[in-house]
Amino acid sequence: MIEALVGNADIPTIVKQKMAELDSRKQTDAVTNYSVINNPSNGEYLLDFVISQQSGNQTIVEWNAYRYVKLDPQDATKGLLLFAYGRRSYGAATTNFLKALKTERTADVKKLASFKVPAVKIKAG
Prior knowledge:
Blueprint: E1 2-6, H1 11-25, E2 33-39, E3 44-55, E4 58-70, E5 79-90, H2 94-114
Antiparallel strand pairs: 1-5, 2-3, 3-4, 4-5
């Protein structure tokens, strides 16, 4: 997933807002957990998190890794990119999903962190 947020919002503020959302969610979702990696050399952050929810009688568990990147500094548009990867599991498969995630997520986070983010240009509308 790639999303662009145009404006004066800075990456640390956006990450703190998402962390506050996840902290709040922990009160009703025992699965919610996250970690944050900051790369001070380029200003990027990577937020790695797990959430769950009930949908009828079925449990849904979702893992996401969100990489927050500045828009191209050569572009006059201010803002940031959210470059993300996620997986989801349903019902009885969620137990095995969470077990596998313990080993798989580290490799996936490393891949996302090192992936060359596509150039995104914002057109004035």
